[in-house]
UniProtKB/TrEMBL annotation:
It comes from Candidatus Cohnella colombiensis. This is ABC transporter permease. Signal peptide: none annotated. Pfam families: ABC2_membrane_5. It comes from the Bacteria. Keywords: Membrane, Transmembrane, Transmembrane helix. The chain crosses the membrane at residues 24-46, 83-103, 124-154, 166-189, 196-214, 241-261, 300-318, 346-368, 395-421, 433-457, 464-482, 507-528.
């Protein structure tokens, strides 16, 4: 029986490998290269024990705990302890995203586009496609774990032994397998790839927040997050393997449940059915603007709630951060003091830049939806009516602009509401938080302009903008920590934004960024009007 339902799983696995012959190696090479480069950079940035202990002191404050996890091995902050403490969580999030995208692509997305129906018309088993997807995702994460583990050990860095390095790699691989299994489960529950990705990313975000809140104020809460599990491995310090076994064990249970649901449901059906729409659409929905907003409303609402909660999570720790920062000079490595401003204001400016980067993700997703609709041949139905290309692209552009403003506003207000409540008599008002967020609008407009340009002239290259976003996040979020040269931050529009409240608004730079954004956007519109529509 099992041979029948998994018939030709190996053949389908090779087919998936063929389709992802570039995608998977790029993910693995990028993650391994980043991990090894950061490990090497630690040896030059914090070569002395005094420098390592200084950064260890800065890791004890609640804000840093919320961002990277509870510190361990801080009394003897070796390179290994520093690596596992500061980088494991961030790498785990990226690996989780990789697994979500890979599994969705070969399950619900293929099902929606009719590929699974074609595959099932051939001599394959009912669960062969899901089995092949699991085999490839497991192999990818296992390969990543081994390469990172042996790679870190091969660097020969003091305190980064073989067991600790393999455990570090195993933690990354385990969290990847967990999110692959979780995504496969949501692929059975949801009726669309959008729902699968939305549910999976929502769990990923909630897991990060639950761990952050738990690490700062309630240790027990961290055990409700898979990120809390892998961080409990405490690689290079205590080398606990049982959290990895726990993570893989839960992933195995999710996998079994996903197989069961896949076996009993109909093709293209889901256990969370979509609600039937109204028989007659409103006049607003009959316009391209209303349609684009309707198609993405759930994702926009989810991101809006997430940005407010994320802002509030960072704002809630500002009270403790203020007292800690005032007494700890070791933070000079992380935050450069500015005369006339409190360290809390410096911290607000730094965190707001990170929040602005995260706000850009839903903005780009809205704009790239136009490309997705075109790829599924839905755009042709609109353009075949009395709808011009300029009006169609303009609708997505307007929604992107509005989403950027909403996301930044909610992130700033969330951080402000929680921050003002957490701080006593700090003199920092809600308006300061809001202005610190809203100054990043020109940078987001640049990113929207680039998205319009790529959709307009080279839709196949839109993934390059995500790589650019990753680069921007790296230099903005970790630039000061790793002491990157200033010119690296000037390669992204976020590097030109005034860091309010410690810097006054630079209107010249803002107007220049806005002008560039307008020029790029116009070029994108012209390109979209001239190029062939692809199906």
């Amino acid at each position: 029986m099992s041979k029948q339902i998994f018939h030709n799983t190996g053949l389908l696995s090779r087919f998936i490998l063929r389709r992802d012959r570039l995608r998977i190696p790029v993910w693995i090479i990028a993650l391994v290269a980043f991990t090894c480069l950061v490990a090497i950079s630690f040896t030059t940035l914090y070569g002395s024990e005094q420098a390592r202990q200084a950064i260890a002191e800065s890791m004890k404050n609640p804000a840093m705990t919320a961002m990277v996890g509870i510190g361990y091995g801080l009394d003897n902050y070796t390179f290994g302890a520093m690596m596992a403490h500061q980088l494991l969580l961030m790498t785990s999030i990226v690996v989780g995203i990789m697994s979500i995208l890979l599994v969705t692509r070969h399950t619900r997305a293929d099902e929606e586009e009719g590929r699974i129906e074609m595959v099932r018309s051939l001599p394959v088993g009912r669960l062969s496609n899901l089995g092949a997807t699991f085999a490839i995702s497991f192999g990818t994460n296992a390969s990543l774990a081994l390469i990172i583990g042996f790679g870190l050990n091969a660097l020969g860095i003091e305190s980064m032994g073989l067991e600790g390095s393999l455990l570090y790699g195993a933690a990354i691989g385990a969290i990847g397998i967990f999110f692959a299994a979780l995504t496969a489960l949501f692929a059975q529950l949801s009726e669309s790839p959008r729902g699968t990705i939305g549910f999976s990313f929502a769990i990923l975000g909630i897991a990060y927040l639950v761990r952050a809140i738990g690490d700062v104020s309630m240790d027990t809460l961290s055990w409700f997050s898979p990120f809390g599990w892998v961080l409990s491995a405490k690689a290079y310090v205590h080398n606990n393997w049982w959290p990895i076994v726990l993570t893989v064990g839960v992933a195995l249970l999710l996998t079994i449940l996903a197989f069961y649901l896949n076996a009993i449901r109909d093709l293209e059906a889901g256990f969370i059915p979509s609600k039937p729409g109204k028989k007659k659409a409103s006049s607003f929905l009959q316009s391209p603007l209303g349609l684009s907003l309707r198609l993405q409303r759930m994702g926009i609402i989810a991101w809006a709630i997430g940005m407010f909660v994320l802002g509030a999570a960072y704002g809630s720790v500002l009270g403790d951060t203020d007292s800690f920062l005032a007494q700890n000079g070791a933070l000079k490595d992380l935050i450069t003091p500015v005369a006339g401003f409190s360290l809390t204001e410096l911290f607000i400016a730094m965190i707001m830049s990170v929040l602005a980067m995260i706000c850009t993700i839903p903005v780009l997703m809205v704009m790239f939806r136009l490309k997705g609709e075109e790829k599924k041949n839905r755009t042709e139905h609109l353009l075949g009516r009395a709808v011009s290309r300029m009006r169609l692209m303009g609708s997505y552009f307007i929604v992107s602009i509005a989403v950027g403003l909403v996301m930044l506003s909610l992130a700033g207000l969330g951080m402000g509401v929680a921050g003002v409540a957490a701080m006593d008599s700090s003199g920092i008002t809600l308006g300061v938080f809001y202005q610190a967020a809203i100054v990043y609008l020109p940078a987001i407009w640049i990113m929207i302009g680039l998205a319009v340009l790529l959709v307009g002239i080279a839709p196949r290259l839109t993934s390059l903008l995500w790589l650019y976003m990753g680069y921007s996040f790296l230099v903005v979020y970790l630039g000061k920590l790793f002491q990157f040269p200033d010119w690296m931050s000037k390669l992204t529009p976020f590097g030109y934004i005034s860091q309010y409240p410690i810097e006054q608004m630079d209107w010249v730079k803002s107007i220049a960024l806005t002008t560039i954004a307008i020029a790029i956007t116009v070029a994108g519109f012209v390109g979209y009007r001239r190029r062939d529509i692809q199906g």
